[in-house]
Design goal:
Blueprint (H helix, E strand, L loop, with lengths): L12 E6 L11 E5 L9 E3 L5 E2 L1 H9 L4 H12 L14 H19 L14 H7 L1
Parallel strand pairs: 1-2
Antiparallel strand pairs: 1-3, 3-4
Helix pairs in contact: 2-3
The structure holds zinc ion.
């Protein structure tokens, strides 16, 4: 579900429809954005705070050069307690840095709350796991 970047609620987010959509629209999901279609149009609006933004643009900022496979690798390595310098994916762009920071923060929070982070069958290289529980 899409969250409002301004007030963080997701219940009040509506996707903006442009042009002449078939009526009636589902008002719990959509909002009419007007009949002018432009690539600079915002894609979402928030009924709670009135903020409008383009979800596509936000995604591109993070998702352009980073593959989901890389993100997965970072998440696994971070959860295993591998230090930033030794990750399989080199953190050498602002995008990767941001992703790393988010993953690290969430992993640390999960650990603080005592959630076990488990991975099914990661092969033979289990040393970092041992270190984590020492
Ligand atoms: Zn909002």
């Amino acid at each position: 579900m899409v969250k409002c970047p301004n007030c963080q609620t997701s219940k009040s987010v509506r996707k903006l429809l442009y042009g002449f959509p078939e009526l009636p629209i589902d008002e719990n999901k959509f909002e009419l954005g007007g009949c002018v279609i432009s690539k600079d149009n915002p894609t979402h609006t928030c009924k709670n705070c009135g903020y409008e933004w383009s979800h596509k643009k936000q995604k591109n900022k993070l998702g352009k050069e980073v593959s989901s496979r890389d993100i997965e690798k970072i998440a696994v390595d971070v959860a295993l307690g591998i230090s930033k310098e030794k990750l399989r994916v080199k953190i050498d762009t602002p995008e990767l840095e941001e992703i790393y920071n988010v993953i690290k923060k969430e992993t640390d929070e999960a650990r603080e709350k005592g959630y076990a982070i488990e991975f099914p069958n990661l092969g033979t290289d289990l040393e970092p796991v041992k270190k984590m529980y020492d």
